[in-house]
Amino acid sequence: MLFRLFVLLALCGAASACDAFPNNTQATFNWWQCYESSITYYKTTPEDASGKFEYPIVLSKPLIVEADVDNHGKTYSQLSLSIRLWEWNNVFGCGWNEINTFGLLSNLDACTHGVPCPIKPGRQTLKLTIDFSKFQAIIGLLKNNAPYQIQLTLADKQSSDKTCVIAQGRALTH
Ligand SMILES: *[C@@H]1O[C@H](CO)[C@@H](O)[C@H](O)[C@H]1NC(C)=O
Fold it and tell me: Which keywords accompany this UniProt record (predicted)?
């Protein structure tokens, strides 16, 4: 009995010591570039289909990510896109738990999954369309109005060039 009470108190303590929305994701969209690459990101902005800033992000509709980038590499016309997703665990400690997407979001053909190909050299604005509504099997399982972390990796099929960004934000899933 005493032990149970102790476990309960410990769990409550852990939950309250941990932010419901880490890194201020309640109000702000956080992002960063994973590593140096031939594409440099200056800014990324989540938008709805009409080009208006969207926050929280709505995953049940196509999401536009407007990215201010500089491509100091070549013209990329054959790219693969891989997406990893994490949900925030604030019950048992605080941390990001990767969501199993059953390989559905790995090695997608980027040019038919929302990336405007070809990506030419130079400073430019890219509008990436991420349409999770096509992956209802995954989105349907996600908690509504919760913090998520997403990693997007673009890989050139002809060379070993890769580029990656991570974003964290509050998302509505239905
Ligand atoms: C918060 O954001 C920074 C980058 O701004 C990142 O390095 C850090 O891992 C993030 N913390 C969590 C808990 O996600």
Answer: Signal
CATH of the domain at 104: 2.70.220.10
Positive or negative CA dihedral for 47, 53, 59, 62?
Answer: negative
Q: Would you say residue 124 lies in a domain?
A: yes
Residue 147 to residue 153: CA distance in whole angstroms: 20
- 22 part of a folded domain: no
Bridge-based pairing state of the strands 95-98 and 79-89: antiparallel
Q: Residue 142: which residues within 8 A CB-CB, separation 6 or more?
A: 59, 87, 99, 148, 171, 173
Give which of 1, 53, 62, 5 is closest to 29, Cα–Cα: 53
User: pLDDT tens across 88-128, in order?
Assistant: 998 888 999 999 998 999 999 999 999 999 999 999 999 99
Asked if residue 151 has its Cβ within 6 Å of ligand 1, the reply is no
6 lines ligand 1 (CB under 6 A): no
Quote the number of domains for the chain. Answer: 1
Range of the domain at 71: 30-172
| 23 C-beta closer than 6 A to ligand 1 | yes
